[in-house]
Design brief:
Layout (H helix, E strand, L loop, with lengths): L11 H20 L3 H32 L4
Helix pairs in contact: 1-2
């Protein structure tokens, strides 16, 4: 059970898409009664969304530096 690993996508949209896939995988694991995989996939989705949030915040900070007050 489980899987995953590998490099995280660097694009926010890709991270969100990967998180959605992880949640779909978690749902399938839950329906199959595989609680270990369910938890691993939920944790994976949370990690992906945290990274997406970090990238979005970095982009916002970068935009503020380019376009102050905007």
């Amino acid at each position: 059970p489980g899987g995953g690993g590998g490099e995280l996508p660097s694009d926010v949209a890709e991270l969100v898409s990967a998180a959605l896939q992880a949640l779909e995988d978690a749902d399938a694991a839950l329906r199959a009664g595989d609680l270990a995989t369910y938890q691993a996939k939920v944790d994976e989705a949370a990690d992906l969304l945290s990274r997406a949030e970090e990238l979005a915040e970095q982009a916002a900070v970068g935009a503020d530096a380019i376009f102050p007050g905007g």
